[in-house]
Design brief:
Blueprint (H helix, E strand, L loop, with lengths): L4 E5 L3 H12 L3 E6 L15 E2 L10 H11 L6 E3 L5 H12 L3 H28 L11 E5 L2 H6 L1 H9 L5 E4 H7 L12 E5 L3 E2 L2 H16 L2 E4 L3 E7 L2 E7 L5 E2 L2 E4 L19 E11 L8 E4 L4 E6 L2 E10 L8 H14 L11 E9 L6 E4 L6 E5 L5 H17 L1
Parallel strand pairs: 1-2, 1-13, 2-9, 4-17, 5-15, 13-20
Antiparallel strand pairs: 3-8, 5-7, 6-7, 10-11, 11-12, 14-17, 14-18, 15-16, 16-17, 19-20
The structure holds flavin-adenine dinucleotide (FAD).
Enzyme class: oxidoreductase
Protein name: D-amino-acid dehydrogenase
Pfam families: DAO
């Protein structure tokens, strides 16, 4: 394909990974972001998990059974703020429609396929680029508090093994042999699902490092601190990207990778209707002695613990609230209180805690949206990565780059 001038809107993990794929194909890439540097949106403080064998869609039979408790505010990990916004109602109905077991597995299988592409793309990126983002094949333990909960995982683990993924059910004693820090875990654990080939890495560092590499080695242009407001067309064909605060940028093609804020571009990209933001929180601290080195997820409390270089991070909570929500101090304190209750010794340096929240750009099916705008020829999108954007970014970038090459 001939060299094209392509704007990528959004320098989160999805936009930066897309810019990488396009630059390698020889295109003239302009990476645009409203923030001052890459990786400042949802990609800034996530749980750092490259969950290649997890991929489980959020709308599931288990979540459906748990819905009354969530609706009544009895699960501290979830908060739903009901709204009559038609967009929210449509999203909610479509979310419920995806929670049946056949749809759940078809969505999960789709995500696992994308995750496999991501895993391969990550391996080739690591072989090609000298990037430092605390990447490690840490492995992952999902901890279960009850025998019934662990047992319910058996069919899913079996299905994943049939797909060639490495995953095992372990007793608490077996899990503690793999991660001795579990000796100090103060929550109930009956056993665990172990995924030895899942990895961990700092997503924001990846965004900054890969962008710097793209500028140095591929000569891409970056345009930060500028907010895109829409797109100019000649007939049906994209002509230029328009900004709030600078002149329009003439381009051949553009890719919207604006994460949860793709919703602000609905006039030009009605496909973004399918996204609703789901807010989560994280705390990052210096890692003291006794920090687990295997990534842990406490399934009943919905907490993810990760060691990232010399820091550790705990992330969790899923708040489905009206658009335009902000950091909520009380929710962040709730996360810290729960995390402290299971690993108190990790919280001795509370003065150095970095508190963060971000919005997961969730689709009802948990499947990312990769495609061409139906309104504007030359406008593409790579959005809606929900809980798994760090894991899936390189895979969806590959799919989008292939689509453009067609
Ligand atoms: C608490 C939490 C934990 C998570 N844990 C994990 C995990 O362990 N593993 C995993 O795989 N995923 C995880 N995720 C999900 C993952 O972080 C997201 O799916 C991913 O970061 C989305 O990336 P993105 O590039 O689409 O969006 P973003 O990172 O938000 O990037 C979008 C960028 O677009 C820019 N932008 C938006 N609109 C405009 C505009 N109009 N003009 C210019 N720029 C614009 C924004 O400034 C932003 O920089 C987690 C998310 C949360 C909140």
């Amino acid at each position: 394909m001939s060299r094209r001038r392509i704007a990528v809107i959004g320098a989160g993990v999805v936009g930066v990974s897309t810019a990488y794929g396009l630059a390698r194909q020889g295109h003239d890439v302009i990476l645009v972001d409203a923030r001052a540097e890459p990786g400042r949106g949802a990609s800034a403080g996530n749980a750092a998990q490259l969950s290649y064998a997890y991929g489980d869609a959020m709308a599931s039979p288990a979540l459906l059974r748990h819905l009354p408790a969530i609706a009544l505010g009895r699960d501290p990990a979830f908060r739903v703020t009901w709204s009559l916004d038609p967009h929210f109602l449509i999203w909610g109905v479509r979310f419920l429609a995806n929670a049946g077991s056949a749809r759940w597995w078809s969505n999960t299988a789709h995500i696992l396929d994308l995750a496999e592409v991501s895993r391969r793309e990550m391996a080739s990126l690591l072989a090609e680029v000298d990037l430092s983002f605390s990447y490690r094949m840490a492995g992952k333990l999902h901890l279960y508090a009850s025998a019934a909960g662990l047992d319910a995982m058996r069919p899913t683990v079996q299905r994943k093994r049939e797909r060639g993924l490495a995953q095992n059910l372990l007793s608490r004693a077996e899990a503690t042999l793999i991660e001795p820090a579990l000796e100090a875990f103060e929550g109930a654990v009956i056993g665990a699902v172990h995924t030895p080939q899942d990895a961990v890495g700092d997503c924001a560092e990846y965004c900054r490092g890969l962008t710097a590499h793209l500028v140095r080695h591929y000569g891409i242009t970056t345009l930060f601190d500028h907010t895109v407001t829409g797109f100019a067309r000649k007939g049906r064909r994209l002509h230029a990207v328009q900004f709030r605060d600078r002149d329009a940028l003439p381009v051949d093609l553009a890719v919207v990778a604006a994460g949860p804020q793709a919703l602000n571009l609905l006039r030009d990209l009605p496909e973004a209707q399918a996204i609703w933001p789901v807010r989560g929180y994280s705390l990052t601290l210096p890692a003291p002695a006794g920090t687990p080195s295997v990534s842990l997820t406490d399934v009943s409390r919905k907490l993810a613990f990760a060691r990232i270089g010399d820091r550790f991070r705990v992330a969790g909570l899923a708040d489905i609230a009206p658009r335009g929500g902000r950091f909520d101090e009380a929710r962040c304190e709730a996360l810290e209180k729960t995390a402290r209750s299971v690993f108190p010794h990790l919280f001795n340096h509370t003065s150095e805690v970095c508190r963060w929240s971000g919005e997961r750009p969730m689709t009802p099916s948990s499947r990312p949206l990769i495609g061409r705008s139906r309104l504007t020829a030359g406008l593409y999108y790579n959005i809606g990565h929900g809980m798994l954007g760090w894991t899936l970014a390189l895979g969806t970038a590959r799919r989008l780059v292939d689509m453009i090459a067609e």
